[in-house]
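Summary for the steering committee. The consortium agreed at its last meeting that each partner would contribute one worked example illustrating the joint modelling workflow. Our contribution is presented below. We chose a case with several input lines so that the handling of multiple components could be demonstrated. No manual editing was applied between input and output; the record is shown as generated.
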Amino acid sequence: MKSTLHEQAASNPLLRKLSSIADLSDEERQAVLDLPVTVKVFEADTDIIQDGDRSSDCALVLSGFVCRYKILPDGKRQIMGFYIPGDIPDLQSLHLHVMDSSVGALARSSIALIRHQSLRDMLRRHPNLSDILWRDTLIDAAMFREWMIGLGRRSAYQRMAHVLCELQVRMKAVGLARENGCELPITQNEFADALGLSTVHVNRVLQDLRRDGLIVLRGSMLEIPNWEALQAAGEFDPAYLHLKR
Amino acid sequence: MKSTLHEQAASNPLLRKLSSIADLSDEERQAVLDLPVTVKVFEADTDIIQDGDRSSDCALVLSGFVCRYKILPDGKRQIMGFYIPGDIPDLQSLHLHVMDSSVGALARSSIALIRHQSLRDMLRRHPNLSDILWRDTLIDAAMFREWMIGLGRRSAYQRMAHVLCELQVRMKAVGLARENGCELPITQNEFADALGLSTVHVNRVLQDLRRDGLIVLRGSMLEIPNWEALQAAGEFDPAYLHLKR
DNA sequence: CGTACGATTGAGAGACTTCAACAAACGTGG
DNA sequence: CCACGTTTGTTGAAGTCTCTCAATCGTACG
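What follows is the complete predicted structure of the assembly.
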């Protein structure tokens, strides 16, 4: 469905997201809203872009839940990041012409496809937006690094606490979380592939976190009764997200 | 020592590096060479920038060997990437004002400090260079992702084979490797912190790789008798480095 | 020629995996 | 609205990769 990002102008997810990491002028906000897009809905467990693709547009998440992953020769999967409304998981495709990983929908997601050409036109007219998007990709990289630390040096228990903290903070930054929790349509199997663990162990770690009163997880509803404690358990310091304020 | 990057113009490491990932016009090459820099030498095991720093310049590696790392509360260290001549490990500081990790010299290294202001001036005059540096940070991110895959889903043996492949390819791209090997001033302890392993296990894995005839490692001299085999052992596919050609 | 740092070895322990079975939750069609 | 099948979550037991501790060896360098 062709349109611009004007719909939901007030609470446009991209504007919310960009505002959370940088200051935008009115002109820049307008330029973003004027972007022509094609909105497409992806069902859960379908790919939005695949490893090896050469795409000519970027995918902006409007609603839903998305992840970046790669499948190894032996069939194992590593999830490298979760993306929520306002994120552009394949922004890199603007400068890296072949995708080196896949992007898939974890839940039914509405995606705005933005032509590279439209983005480039906008960035040429608004160099400051170019810097802001660059900044966004740098924050993406900072998240990869933080996950690396977890995978390399933190226990399963810490890792799980850490992702939950990250997701809560990011969801809150775009207005999708309550004060003490949010909705996470992520299965234990998906957590396993994100944290480099087996599904079985994820299950046990979640039970430990529950036993310790750090989380309440019913279905996809996450509640965090004691934020300080969960943060401490995961050694979570939001500095790497480089949010404003 | 103040100067510009003109010295070693022909084989300037930054030009070599940028040329390996994108095409530069003569004007752009000149703009790069005209960058005013301050050259500083860092001894092995000293920090170039520290976690939490707000710096006003970027560090270009001219010679030596550098890594990005973070120390955890319990003293554990995770190395998140190695940087070789031509790399700018903290290019992110141009847009992310507080460092979220440290950068340290693994061997005596000569570093060219480039003021953010000088870089910004150059990028404003040469928007294409801006895109090329953005591309560079995106490749950096791609390397983090590839390491994540290793940390999360590959065995110690595979991981070690994989880093060795990555380093050989990157060293060759800037002319610092022979056809079948290169010099890597990295201790087993540093490999351990990079691969999320213990030093002891790194030692055993290296012995396994030697036993299997995949590498010859004497001191810091790496030789790769059978490139195909090492690549296969590490499931190494250089696509994520996004080199030209 | 000692000292220090890096490499190597052995033995025991632990975190996490794999396999396999079962229970619960969910969506869908009749 | 219930029956049914598929997906997701849970549990137990055995196995393994990798860790920790601790000692020894090699070698470069002052």
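Chain A touches chain B at residues 68, 70, 72-73, 76-78, 80, 92, 95-96, 98, 100-101, 124, 127, 130-131, 134-135, 137-142, 144-149, 151-154, 193, 195-196, 235, 239-240, 242 (CB under 8 Å). The longest strand of chain A covers residues 57-71.
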